[in-house]
Structures
1.
Amino acid sequence: MISVTSLVKKFGDFTAVDDVSFNVAQGEIFAFLGPNGAGKTTTIKMLTTLLRPTSGRIELDGLDPTVKQKLARQRFGIVFQDPSLDGEQTAWENMDLHGVLYHIPRKVRVQRTEELLKLFELWDRKDAYVKTFSGGMKRRLEIARGFLHTPKILFLDEPTLGLDPQSRNQLWTHVKRLNETEKTTVFLTTHYMDEADRVAHRIAIIDHGKIVAQGTPAELKEQTQTDSLEAAFLAFTGSTLREESADSKERLRQMAQMFQRR
Amino acid sequence: MGAIYILWLRELKRYVRSRVQIVVSLGQPCLYLLALGFGLGPVFRQAGHGSYLQFMAPGVVGMTVLFSSVFSGIAMLWDRQFGFLKETLVAPVSRMQIMIGRTLGGATVAVIQGTLILLICLIAGFRPHSWLAIPLAFLFVIMIAIVFSALGTAIGSVIKDMQGFQLVMNFMVMPIFFLSGALFPLANLPLVMSVITKLDPLAYGVDGLRGALINAWHFNLALDVTLLASIAAIFLSAGAYLFSRIEV
């Protein structure tokens, strides 16, 4: 369903994603793990047509998203790291707007919006403005919206960031259920290793733009002779802290160099 | 088409729902109308130009449309900040449709605002030379709205923070307003001023409004319409181009 071959993204001299290759099968839940600044979000942005790769090949359901942008976009849903709802509209209106943008016929739109809002326990708040929602409700609405156009692939970029354990637990239960009933392929990133361990069928660990390990959670633990995914993750990526703003600093440095040359 | 419609509708909903903002945005033109219209009225009359309220009402309508349409474009700053922009940018519709939907929405809101101010002017005592002139005045209101909504979209695609917004307000929108002849006649200005005012798109809009409503032209109907239409085309293209280059 997702096939990535030798994907590279450079920002000036800085290589954010360095020769990354992986495959995700249909119906699989695939977790993409890595420390801050490892290249997770950059990869997702390239997969979802928001960034152009420097080189390498991407296929989503057999389509190259850099060429067949619209067709590819129709096939995936995405929940961004930061919220992307319209707070000035109601939950229903947010869903409806999404449905129109994704060319869903009116009847299907209405029916599916109702189904999803009920599933994500937002139905009784459907006419409330999104700006009055709690963080957990907003996340649920975004994920419900991501499923609205029955995407073949759903990208979740740290969907549980800042949620309490109850909300996180409930959210993954829903995602798992829809993965099973609708056979949606799920590509997710998270910093919570227990979540990845519980939800993901397969995991890739990325560090400094390169994939350092791939396999099922059990395989990764076995390879590192550890008993938890967190320990395995630390074994692969080391325990040094990462500069979260490494790439923007890097860019500043380049700017400074540019001015010195003159 | 569905995408254009739903994004247009969104702009209208936002407008109708923010009642406080409606009052605030109508407050400023009212202040101009009352303070300047009645305050400078006697001076204007003594100079032999007749009623200042009659003269400036079309200018205040133009100003309202200018501010309202530029703001709607710059409101993209908020959509960028709160993330909604991304939702539209990954959708399977062309950037062109998104840009058109947003821009037409902003323009429609500006036309509504302009209409409300025109009504207020009528209540305050303004009288057009003929009621048949109203449709022509609306043509100009619509053209001003499109020109400056497109400009707003172009600016909104480029600026990324509040500082940029302040810069645009002080060095672009305010000069466009003050140099348009909304508040003073464009005749007999010093050479430099008269050249600058000729470069101001709003000057042609205000002239068209004033011509239509009180039959006082500085330029002429054909010139105003042609120029505004061309500027609209240029700004729309620029807006579309800059919008298509947004990266998130």
Note: Residues 2-261 of chain A form a domain with the Rossmann fold fold (CATH 3.40.50.300).
2.
Amino acid sequence: MKNSLIELNNCGVFRNDKWLVRGISLKVFKGQIVTLIGPNGSGKSTTAKIALGILKPDEGTNFIQEGIKISYVPQKISIDWSLPLRVIDFMNLIEKNNINNIIETLSITGIGHLLYQDVRNLSGGEFQRLLMARALIKKPDFLVLDEPVQGVDYPGEIALYKTIQEIVKNIKCGILLISHNLHVVMSQTDHVVCLNGHVCCSGAPKSIIKEPEYIKLFGESLDPTLAFYEHEHDHKHLPDGSIDNSH
Amino acid sequence: MFEDFLFRAFISGIGLAIIAGPLGCFIIWRRLSYFGDTLSHSALLGVVIGYALNINMILSVFIISGLISLSLLFLQKRTILPNDALLGLLAHSVLAIGLVTLGLLSFIRIDLMGLLFGDILAVNFKDILIVWIGGAIVLFFLIMIWRPLFAGTVNLELAKAEGMKPELANVIFTLLIAAVIAISIKIVGILLITGLLIIPASASRNLSSTPIQMAVIASVVGVVSVIFGLYSSITWNTPTGPSILSMALVIFLASLFPWKKLLIFKKQIKLFDK
């Protein structure tokens, strides 16, 4: 039997008098890219944090396979000005790495020339590439990417997604990806989970774009030549993402 | 050699400055500048309890400061108040409790000036041992938790997600600060210890470009401040603790000069000559 790297079982997180997410179930296997899509505030980052073990679910269970190497590219990091931190120091944040390995990984994400730069001198896109390089250098078993290409220029974005795919092939890690780029989601992903405070629908990209739930959230206007994730609903949404039971 | 009070003062002050450097850096990075103040406010209660129960003052101060540190961590999780509000709340309530306890135990006479400003010239051989052995233990633990503590300082969630234990490192870190405050009371006093933690680290920030550099330079700045502060205090007969901090301030002011730019500029001139 295939063992999942992580598994969420009907997870819910309750914070500040409100369920941030509820009833989330998903699995990530080795060598698989699972994508979370959904509107702003639909609980994508929260779900990722449950999968990483940062947030403990208030209901349901989260399972993380023991002894696996986990890398995380968070959506946002702000480095305090009081911290003198160079790119090389950031690459060694969790564990010390060989210098050649660092240069090589930085080159893969396109910022090999910035090794000794202060992290706060990097542009938004360069910093995103740094976050990615730091996550890749330890060859993780499970990689969580929370909007990994925000602020990256268009050719860079394509290149970074190609890199991600190559890495999955090479090191056979499982990836949980949060992305707004539906083209990428549909063409390069194995399994799509559509969130709106709960799991709206999930499945292979091709099957999910046909679901009315998906069409309601993302529209039908996508180029049909792309591999789509299709999406089907059997329920209505209120503006906060909860399910409308009135009909 | 150890019979000379001046020599003892130098040795104990240098020991304290070495350990204050890296701890001070973390205090600045984590925006806990008022944390030292909070703990030193709680030291009064520690001293009073030490006198009342007739136990070692350093131990009682460490225990009280440690409890205050842990309650800060507890409050951080339980309330939505920001750090500075919590630190102020703890500092002044513990100071009040200390004063009330002191009032209740009217038989205790405390050298308040000594407690506030310390008396580095009065340290004995035992104090030196406490500073150096205690300091070595603190430094050892700090090096042990350096990586998770630093990773958690940069980004707590990242460190947590990737299998470090930044929260445990936080608890140990706050206890280390409590320990340093306890061992430093006799030397610089509770009013000035925060200064010894923060001023050298601040000066160091202006001179360094990597975290480890900043920690080491902070120690060096502290040691230089102790040496010149003590020297000037003897030359001009000024109070010792404040002289040390004034010297640290002078170094901080000097650190504001754009030395790094000057260095880069020089390199460019050399390149130009070639």
Note: The helical segments of chain A are 44-52, 87-91, 99-108, 124-137, 154-171, 182-188, 205-208, 212-218.
